[in-house]
Amino acid sequence: MIKELLNKKDIDRVLSRIAHEIIEKNKGIENICLVGIQRGGVHIAKRLSAKIAAIEQADMPVGSLDISLYRDDIGMRKEQPVVRRTDIPCDITDKKIILVDDVLFTGRSIRAAMDALMDFGRPAEMQLAVLIDRGHRELPIRADYVGKNIPTAMSENIEAQLEEEGLEDRIILQAKE
Amino acid sequence: MKDLIGIKELSKEDINVILDTAASFKDVLKRDIKKVPALRGKTVVNLFFEPSTRTKTSFELAEKRISTDVLNFSVPTSSVVKGESLLDTVRTIEAYGVDFIVIRHSSSGVPHFIARNVKASVINAGDGINEHPTQALLDAFSIVEKKGGLNGLKVAIVGDITHSRVAKSNVYLLSKFGAHIRLVGPPTLIPDMAGYGVEVFYNMEDGLKDVDVIMMLRIQTERQGKGFFPSTLEYFKNWGLDTQRLELADKDAVVMHPGPMNRGIEISSDVADSAQSIILDQVTNGIAVRMAVMYLLGGAKENA
Questions:
Q1: Contact yes or no for A79 and B299 at CB 8 A
Q2: Architecture in CATH of A9-71+82-155
Q3: What is the ipTM of this complex?
């Protein structure tokens, strides 16, 4: 059974709010760079960047980060995760980096993302923005900006289906096979 | 997949995955910190039964950049290693708890034999006159980087094809991707590879006409005087690549060489150093490709 949690409109409204929150919390966008985690996070980061740029009438740099090489479960999966491209558009040292992901779950991806990013420099600060927080953290990690908190069971899957992947924008919940 | 033994055994799909992954590793090599923790805790042994500087250095750097612990196990090249003692050597090494064995051997088929007998992932770094798969992969990566693809390209492989594992692996790979392969060299040094759709040219000028890629092979000077070709001077006159001959190829043709080069024997200095030469790109790409191979072999659960 598939349950739709957010539709296209909902996602857009949530991202508008997060864009405003980012600007408010940081008192503008000076010295900020968004970095999306491959793949869903990259799409979300680009959308946020466009919204922030429109509100602030300024460029909002956005990068993409692949975390496959920093995962803590290498050798424990059936196949190696596909290594996607990493593109960090600016020198991150002394910048405020806002990590962006679609779904926050155990926190392990975020741990890997923090390690991966540290190899590019020493940011002044890192913040975390996620579209969905589904709970079940296994590491002491929390998000600074959350689109929607959705309590889930471990037996369930949350999937962010996005237009950039050729799908219709929606967030769905379904039982794992 | 547990091992990388030869290009022959790989599908087009497998090769595409390796090349795509290598592109990501090439990005890693451009960073200030050129090392990623992907294979932390894994151990590799470089088992070279045949002298090698370039391939071994490239593998070793790739191994370090992907955070494996590296052991070098050099074997005296003069000793004839019999099947049984070879297996003993490898079993001893496996007992150290290694996850990867990178092997070069002067006899064809040794990596296959070892792969069947150990749990570790075996990577063929060149076996006899059979295959040198990582070289063909890095060559393909280098061509794709400059030409955008392999399908339909005219590729001339020039030199001693018979004794070249690099040429063999490249023929296997290029034929899978629909390239037009030309083998160019003296009749004594070109084997029958008709099954791979190759064209054979004994005349260098005809062979180079309009090609997009020229792969030069190293002429092993120790083969001189064994009846394969009259002399190195004579060889250069007939099959050496100089500026004049390079002009016969497409104007955007790239020149490749797996190294080490014999300047003045198979390739002239001005060609080796020309803007069309991508010989040094091949060296850099080799590290990325070897990292990709190790990453892809190194994580699968069935290896654990």
A1: yes
A2: 3-Layer(aba) Sandwich (3.40)
A3: 0.85
